[in-house]
Backbone:
């Protein structure tokens, strides 16, 4: 594998309104002193899809999971995560509140072993929403946003585990949306899905940019180029290049990015 | 020899070994049930035992076994559930967790006679609890705990981590995720574990001889006052269980029909334990189907 100069990078700050940004984010796993993620400074534009690409082990998932503090229990994270003028990486911040504003969808669909509607209402009830009418309304709205409503509206009391993989993943998106988050983090959401479900999911995600900021980790470069406005390329725990998706895929500034997007990597 | 032949011989040897295991089980079950079944009658199940004359039943012993089981579960289930949740969800991978696991292993390998004598010295004598259902239930808790902790921990562990992540990512606290998502998902396994451990408790004799005692005073099933000494609900009365009864009629029984009583009681014991096992399976399957929508 060719070695690249990891200190060489090209990172732009999008001119749009910024929804979330990180400043010199470093992630350490275990008690080790070696950072799994080094000095990641990125700004994510509001109401856009930003894709994080890179080979396995490049740190893109680690980075993504740090954004809503999902890595708190397993890693030490230094640096700033700025959201609405607050550094949400501060120990004083209420992480449960953070996760309500920054939702997450995972690689493998992980619906709860409950009915479809309970999958959505469980966290809402835990958050103190008890009004039956409001719960029903949130179920309907979020399922519509996730483009699942028409398929399941007559089966809301059936077990979510009886749905297909693609439907389960859209249910997980609906479940995250029901919390009315600002930002949605997706960690390779289509990697366990067939091509048809993947297309449906991508259409859904594009729809969602009307109201949500989306950051998505993907292994699939076509997917990144199809749906995202900005793309960040990660390599060995470093952000190598961050720019408009078109630029990354057509005229990247850095050799490593060029090699990766053209498939001449490693 | 060709690989094909080797494989055929190996398969046959393995099949034979399995056959032996199954045959032993069926021989035992068949013998006990066939020789005991003719002695089981409504009269046998519903009349009190008699010490000297023939025709005694096992009503009180059967009830004592069930009551003891319920009391044991009431004591051991909360303890086991808490420990299992700790081990599966909270404990880190360190020496303290290792110590707890070793303690549980050792507890499960203690000989039941030793636990019985320990219970006799501590509860019956030292704490003045006398031969009582409660002493027996505490002694049985010692056996039941490791089994229950391990089976509950196993069920919790079988719930994928992605479920925990899903809960946490929705802004739920760790405890809320465990209570509302992990425990319900693990419930079929937990129930199966409880019922299987109940079978073990139901058949235990050695630990009870010195704790719950060997006498079965006449019980009054219409006396619902648990503090009254003749009430069937009194946890402080001595109580001979079915398993102890079998042991007793075989060693010191003077009734002329001791052989048929022990055969009948053994068959009842085995049948109840089999029912526990099949029940565990049926309930587990039913709940799994209900949760997964029949998939």
Residues:
């Amino acid at each position: 594998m060719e070695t690249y100069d990891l200190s060489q990078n090209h990172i732009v700050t999008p001119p749009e309104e910024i929804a979330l940004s990180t400043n010199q984010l470093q992630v350490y796993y275990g008690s080790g002193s070696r950072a799994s993620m080094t000095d990641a400074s990125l700004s994510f534009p509001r109401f856009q899809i930003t894709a994080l690409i890179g080979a396995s082990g490049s740190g893109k998932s680690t980075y993504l999971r740090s954004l809503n503090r999902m890595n708190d229990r397993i890693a030490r994270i230094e640096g700033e995560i700025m959201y609405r003028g607050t550094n949400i990486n501060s120990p004083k911040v209420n992480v449960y509140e953070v996760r309500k504003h920054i939702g997450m969808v995972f690689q493998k669909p992980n619906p709860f072993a409950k009915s479809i509607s309970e999958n959505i209402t469980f966290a809402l009830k835990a958050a103190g929403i008890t009004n039956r009418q409001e719960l029903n309304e949130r179920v309907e709205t979020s399922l519509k946003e996730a483009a699942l409503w028409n398929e399941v509206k007559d089966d809301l009391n059936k077990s979510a585990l009886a749905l297909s993989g693609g439907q389960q993943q859209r249910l997980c998106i609906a479940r995250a949306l029901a919390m009315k988050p600002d930002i949605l983090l997706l960690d390779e959401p289509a990697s366990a899905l067939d091509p048809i479900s993947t297309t449906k999911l991508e259409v859904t995600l594009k729809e969602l940019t009307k109201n949500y900021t989306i950051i998505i980790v993907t292994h699939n470069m076509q997917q990144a180029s199809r749906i995202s406005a900005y793309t960040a390329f990660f390599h060995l725990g470093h952000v190598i290049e961050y720019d408009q998706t078109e630029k990354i895929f057509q005229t990247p500034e850095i050799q490593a990015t060029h090699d990766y997007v053209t498939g001449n990597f490693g | 020899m060709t690989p094909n032949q080797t494989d055929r011989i190996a398969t046959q040897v393995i099949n034979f070994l399995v056959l032996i295991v199954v045959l032993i089980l069926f021989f035992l079950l068949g013998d006990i049930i066939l020789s005991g079944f003719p002695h089981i009658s409504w009269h046998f199940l519903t009349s009190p035992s008699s010490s000297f004359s023939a025709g005694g039943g096992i009503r009180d012993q059967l009830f004592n076994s069930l009551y003891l089981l319920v009391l044991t579960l009431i004591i051991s289930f909360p303890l086991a559930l808490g420990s299992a949740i700790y081990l599966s969800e909270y404990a880190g991978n360190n020496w303290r967790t290792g110590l707890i696991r070793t303690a549980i292993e050792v507890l499960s390998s203690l000989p039941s006679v030793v636990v019985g004598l320990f219970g006799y010295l501590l509860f019956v004598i030292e704490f003045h609890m006398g031969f009582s259902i409660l002493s027996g239930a505490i002694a049985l808790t010692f056996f039941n705990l490791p089994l229950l902790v391990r089976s509950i921990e196993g069920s919790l562990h079988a719930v994928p981590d992605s479920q925990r992540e899903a809960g946490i990512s929705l802004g739920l606290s760790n405890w809320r995720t465990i209570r509302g998502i992990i425990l319900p998902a693990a419930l079929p396994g937990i129930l199966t574990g409880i019922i299987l451990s109940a079978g073990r408790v139901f058949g235990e004799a050695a630990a009870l001889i010195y704790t719950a005692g060997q006498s079965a005073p006449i019980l009054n099933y219409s006396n619902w006052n648990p503090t009254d000494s003749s009430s069937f609900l009194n946890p402080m009365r001595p109580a001979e269980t079915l398993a102890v009864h079998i042991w007793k009629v075989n060693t010191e029984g003077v009734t002329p029909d001791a052989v048929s009583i022990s055969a009948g009681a053994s068959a009842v014991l085995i049948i109840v334990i089999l029912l526990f096992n099949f029940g565990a399976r049926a309930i587990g399957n039913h709940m799994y189907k209900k949760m997964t929508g029949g998939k």
Summary: The interface with chain A takes residues 160, 162-163, 165-173, 176, 180-181, 184-185, 290-295 of chain B (CB under 8 Å).
